[in-house]
Amino acid sequence: MPSRIRQRSSRTRQRTILLACTMVLIVTIIIVLAAVLAYGRKETSMQLLQWKGRGTTKNLQEVFLGRCYNYITTVKPELRDKDCQKIWATMQNAFVYKNPCNITTEDYQPLLDLASHPVPCNKSLFWSKTNDLVHRYTKTNHNFLTLEDTLLGYVADGVSWCGSRFSPGINYESCPKWSECENNPNTVYWKMASKMFAEAACGTVQVMLNGSIDGAFNNNSMFGSVEIFNLNPHKVSSVRIWLMYNIGGPQRESCTGRSITSLKTILEERNLSVSCEDNYRPVQLLQCASDPDHADCRLCTNSIQ
Description:
- By secondary structure, this protein is α/β, with parallel strands linked by helices.
- It contains 10 helices and 6 strands.
- Strands 2-4-5-6 form a 4-stranded parallel beta sheet. The chain has a two-stranded antiparallel ribbon with strand order 1-3.
- Helix 8 links the parallel strand 4 (about 205-210) and strand 5.
- Helix 3 packs antiparallel against helix 4 (about 105-115) and helix 4 crosses helix 7 (about 185-200).
């Protein structure tokens, strides 16, 4: 065989071997990438399911914007100049694609600056363990406002949210419970909103507590740990405690009970005047509207039977 033909044949074999090696390398890379992607998807799934709390509310953006527009057009039309789209964008920036256990007050401050608004003096109503009753009351008596009756509380009441390092940056599967990590999106949000609500209070403020449970006042509640210490004695003249009992009881604590006495002491040490009333009559009448024939409602007395 001529040497030229042998050289050409040798080059052809080399190219064939090189091509085969290249194909094997490409197939190997594809297999490795597929394995990595599969592991990444598994890791992502595990990451999203690690928390004990419920995940981000479905259609959170639509819920948030709908509430915001309803608030500024029908609930408080005097706030119609608020920009709901900008408020939502700022809300997103606070938690999307962020570690749900590493949220800071700085993350939410721009949102609070955009959505905050004044609360008239004598209208602030705080609460603990009376969620349903206190909001039934403010829906019928517009002389009082809870945090949830402000724009910041209204848009976030009852919904959940948290971020994720993975696309789309929001975890719809699970979010940290308040007890899992302190700096989670919901806890930081409500602490900041509660602090701001308390700081804005002026005149006489009210707090509705539940006398049908042990320890009507709880130092670890949002009211006991945040709001009470941010009431400004130079703006707030007095605090009225409304101690409410469930229709039919039980009546576990009174205005002279241990936890209420503790609350009075804390307030008085902060130079705040305090009064307490068992079964504040207007709220008791609201309770009785749903069960008017109950023995507790026949006289609707303000005293404990």
